[in-house]
Amino acid sequence: MIEVATPGMLTTVQDLGRHGYRSSGVGPGGAVDTLSHRVANLLVGNPADAAALEITLFGPRIGFPTGAWVAMTGATVGAVVVTADGRSTPVPAWHPIWVPDGATLICGPCAPHGCRSSLAVAGGLDVPLLLGGRGTDLRSGFGGYQGRALRAGDQIAVGAALRKPPADRHLAVVDPRTVPPELTPWPNGSPANGAAPPPIRVLRGPEFDAFPTASHEALFNTPFVVTPDSDRSGCRLSGTALAPPTMTLSEVVVAGTIQVPPSGQPIVLAADHPVTGGYPRIAVVATIDLPRIAQAFLGAPLSFIEIGHDEAQRLLREREQSLRIFALGLEYLR
Amino acid sequence: MASSLLTIEPLGDACLVVRFGTGVDAVTSRAVAAATATLTAAALPGVVDIAATFNTVAVVFDLHRADPRALSGAILARLRRLEGTAPAAGATGRIVEIPVAYGGDDGPDLAAVAAHAGLDSEAVVRLHTTTDHVVGMIGFAPGFPYLLGLPAALEVPRRPTPRTSVPAGSVAIAERQTGIYPRTSPGGWHVIGRTPQAMFDPRRDPPALLRAGDLVRFVPVTGPTRDGERSG
Question: pTM for this one?
Answer without folding.
Answer: 0.92
